[in-house]
Design a protein that fits this description.
Layout: E1 6-8, H1 19-22, E2 30-34, H2 37-40, H3 47-66, E3 70-74, H4 85-96, E4 100-104, H5 109-116, E5 121-125, H6 134-141, H7 149-160, E6 164-165, E7 168-169, H8 200-212, H9 228-241, H10 246-249, H11 266-270, H12 276-288, H13 294-318, H14 337-340, H15 346-358, H16 363-377, H17 381-391, H18 397-408, H19 425-431, H20 452-463, H21 465-468, H22 475-483, H23 486-504
Parallel strand pairs: 1-2, 1-4, 2-3, 4-5
Antiparallel strand pairs: 6-7
Helix pairs in contact: 3-8, 7-13, 9-12, 12-13, 13-18, 15-16, 16-20, 17-18, 20-23
The structure holds flavin-adenine dinucleotide and iron/sulfur cluster (SF4).
Length: 509
């Protein structure tokens, strides 16, 4: 019998069809799965995120054992646990005399570097749980001046055949966003998403996490799917009950309604409990059966085969250097409000409180509230990146970094977004009901009560004038600013400077 090889399965690789498992021999090889304080504290991950990963890993390990695999599983509270991935791999290698390790490409550059430095014969296999491989994305990007998601998305539609009628997109359009930017109505009885009461495994893990990790966020109530069976139930529930209004409500925000019509499927997708194609097929089937409108199905499918695949492609194409991107030279510390929620700004306070309690905020909250404010205030993108990577249930570097550094902070100098996603308070007022209960006034442009987004928006444009004034998508904004009375402009800039000074002093704003 040849020597056993180690087969590494990471906490976001919980898919029975994982490339490393497909390449392994259950009769010969040993699957290695390791919980560790090292991974749990690489950034201060939200307790629900740590609990999700540990519980899902424990369930997955049981399934592998039931399917005939030998699994060496290191629990966090095992006294022999070396508490880092590297220590546990080396311990298992010496226990069974293994000299080789097979793994699937990790979604974090730091982990890849650690694995490649192991004193073992390490084979890194592609992660083919995505619809576009690194090589295919690189081929698509080759020779293009701009890597716009919309063009990539159309290719993915053609390639997968999703929502296609022959060579043309269903409904004659690729994109129905014009129908997808509605305000959400208050007081509607929206179907609540399916949440899952913790079973004994999750309960044990939650107690462990509460005892060991004093990180931002509450561990309970915990309702995330931790097995594939639960994830499939969550998908079916979404497709039946909330997908019909997904499109219309996609960009809306309502006080006290964290979920609206969102799917809450990102974490299950990102740890491997669901695959992107099966999720999109379920959505397409619902549309073909006449149960959901095309704008909802298309809007959802675009997020998965468009944005999700695209940001992964960018992450792979740009490599580890991308993590240090800071095109705008921003250096301010992350305001304390991102951790303690202490702020008069109703929109920011709601997003942070919800993030603390649920480990969840939907896309527009991440992009146009917390992201927008950090960008306008000139926060160091590395600090913003660390915050997003820490606090969300679905945050893994390959998806979080291009969204944060690229889409949200424009730190990559325009690779992901042709212009920065910045707005004044008017956008938040249009898309939410936060402003009516806010300590600031969205209609005020200067003075004590002026909405901070209003002050900082113009200050941002002013301080980055040289870079953006010739951007055709921003020219109108500069014209508007230039037409304002000089005295008003000076007041805006002075009030914005005062606000930034207060942030620098660590005061709550
Ligand atoms: P829905 O609104 O129901 O969307 C459906 C699915 O589409 C999601 O489950 C997700 O898989 C996919 N999706 C939607 N938008 C994106 C996107 N921009 N990039 C990739 N996939 C997308 N998403 C993550 O999965 N992990 C992250 O760490 C992450 N960090 C983000 C950071 C910032 C600053 C921003 C602006 C966005 C980030 N996103 C991230 C994208 C998006 O906000 C989340 O995918 C979404 O909010 C997850 O909630 P949901 O499952 O209810 O999504
Ligand atoms: Fe947010 Fe400004 Fe509206 Fe307050 S007034 S909720 S700070 S946008």
């Amino acid at each position: 019998m040849p020597k056993p090889r180690l087969i590494l399965v990471l906490g976001d690789q919980l898919s029975p069809g994982l490339s490393a498992l497909r390449a392994a021999d259950p009769a010969r090889d040993l699957v290695v799965m390791a919980e560790g304080m090292g991974e749990g504290t690489s950034v201060p991950h939200h307790p629900q995120k740590i609990a999700l990963i540990l519980s899902a890993m424990r369930h997955f390990a049981k399934d592998l054992q039931a399917a005939g695999w030998r699994v060496a599983y290191s629990r966090l509270d095992d006294p022999a646990n070396g508490q880092t991935l590297v220590a546990e791999i080396l311990r298992r290698a010496s226990e069974v005399g293994a000299g080789a390790l097979l793994c699937t490409h990790p979604g974090e550059w730091r982990v890849l570097a650690d694995l490649q430095a192991l004193p073992l014969d390490v084979s890194v296999l592609p992660d083919d749980r995505f619809l576009c491989s690194h090589a295919e994305f690189a081929a698509w990007a080759e020779g293009r001046k701009e890597l716009r998601m919309e063009w990539f998305y159309r290719e993915m539609r053609r390639r997968t055949g999703l929502l296609m009628q022959g060579d043309t997109p269903a409904g004659g359009q690729w994109n129905f966003d014009a129908e997808n930017r509605k305000r959400a109505e208050r007081g509607l009885l929206r179907p609540q998403p399916l949440r899952f009461a913790p079973d004994a495994v999750t309960d044990e893990v939650l107690a462990l996490v509460e005892a060991r990790f004093a990180h931002f966020g509450t561990a309970r109530p915990f309702g995330w799917p931790v097995t594939r069976v639960q994830a499939l139930e969550a998908l079916a529930d979404f497709a039946a009950h909330r997908l019909p209004s997904f499109g219309a409500e996609q960009d809306a925000m309502l006080e006290g309604e964290p979920w609206l019509s969102h799917s809450l499927l990102s974490a299950a997708l990102n740890i491997g409990l669901l695959g992107p194609l099966e999720v999109c097929r379920a959505v397409e089937d619902a549309w073909r059966a006449g149960k959901v409108p095309l704008n909802a199905a298309e809007g959802f499918i675009r997020q998965i085969i468009g944005w999700r695949e695209y940001v992964r492609g960018i992450w792979a194409l740009k490599g580890p250097e991308y993590l240090g991107a800071n095109a705008l030279g921003h250096s301010r510390a992350l305001p304390a409000a991102y951790w303690d929620g202490e702020t008069r700004m109703a929109c920011l306070g709601a997003a942070v409180a919800q993030t603390r309690d649920l480990a969840y905020a939907h896309h527009i909250q991440r992009l146009m509230v917390t992201g927008n404010f950090a960008l306008l205030a000139g926060v160091d993108p590395a600090a913003v990146h660390e915050w997003y990577l820490s606090v969300y249930i679905d945050a893994f570097e390959w998806v979080e970094a291009p969204n944060t550094l690229g889409m949200s902070q424009w730190a990559d100098g325009g690779v992901v977004g042709s212009k920065p996603y910045v707005s004044s308070g008017a956008y938040i007022d249009r898309m939410s009901d936060h402003c009516r209960g806010c300590g600031y006034k969205v209609a005020e442009k200067t003075g004590e009560a002026a909405c901070p987004f209003n002050l900082l928006y113009w200050q941002f444009l002013d301080r980055h004038r040289a870079r953006f004034v010739r951007n055709p998508r921003m020219a109108q904004m500069y014209r508007t600013w230039d037409r304002m009375d000089a005295g008003h402009r000076a007041r805006v800039l002075a009030d914005a400077a005062m606000l930034l000074t207060r942030l620098d002093r660590g005061e709550a704003v």
